Amino acid sequence: MPNLSSDLQPIINKRLNNLSASKIRAFDQKVSGIPNIIKLTIGEPDLATPEHVKEAAIRDINADDSHYAPQAGKPQLLKAISRYLDRSLNVHYDPDSEICVTVGATGALNDVFMTLLNPGDKIIVPTPVWALYFQLIKMTGATPIQVDTKKDGFILTPKHLRHVLNGRGKGAKAIILTDPSNPTGRVYPAETLKELAKIIKEYKIYSITDEIYAELVYGGAEHHSLSQYIPDHNILISGLSKAYAMTGWRLGYIAGPKQIMQSIRKINAFLVTSVTDNVQMAAVEALNNGQNDPKEAREIYEKRLKFMQTGLEKLGFEMATPHGAFYIFAKIPEKYGTDDEQFAFELAQKAKVGLTPGRYFGKGGEGYVRISYASSTAQLEESLKRISNFVNEL
User: Fold this and answer.
1) What DSSP state is assigned to residue 348?
2) What is the pTM of this model?
3) What is the pLDDT of residue 43?
């Protein structure tokens, strides 16, 4: 096996030296070797991709659809995305110029950050948040300005945003919001988004909304988007991974004003050429004929949320009420102070339940753990018993 020449080893993109591998994945791997462990660490739906969606992909393969797709996406899929956004948000995007199909929402984030951000730029990132944002932003040479939202129930308030834009975030080019939130499950009310939209417009910055969990909202809450209020400023990112249990299919998309989408489409073409043909046709089937699929998933997840939330609260765990995604962000027992890593590791070792330390999601996450209820009901019932025994022994 060859070793890299010692003369070449220092020759690398220096920005990579400032990046860290995913701590979420590292912790998941660390506890995976514990016998009989139940892992509630990763946001991976246990549900299967709907049959009609799988059959659409198989039909496309059998039809020998195996050539390069259009770089921004197949026309059928671009139209399906446009119709979906029209009916779900009442916002129209031209399929020919304002939408781009990507390799998952992660690919979409890369496209947008690479298009917008230059070295030295600032982008505001309310936290706790999915930590990959930080690394993708740093890869461009830009700086993520973390804004701790813990004191406001994990919702960025308009007052807080204005304060940041006048202070350490002064001159920021953009802000990114995840709604519904990973890791907190919080959903932004329409009135809050309207007020945030006014400030974003006033300060003449981009907004980027990661709406991958848009279909998974519960408890009477409703999903809204900044695209409904400032479509001229907002770049919307979403995909089919969560609502349609298609994480491994890697299908995401971006929608935004034509002028910026020209550049985003260009970047996407440079990075991936095009998205896999049969995956795109499966997505067409999901969006055109699978409108009930997310509803069925929602009903399952909502029952699991109620079960886990009720059980955890009886054990003394505190949380800002989650209304979306499939996560609970719970405050750890007082004995551990804010050492969520120690708590999570001891819970994994002694109770054989894997939860993700909250500090991995940025400022405001210390002292919390993220619990994914995207696992089977049987696993959740057993995990709650184990957590209960562990906490009662403290």
Assistant:
1) I
2) 0.96
3) 85
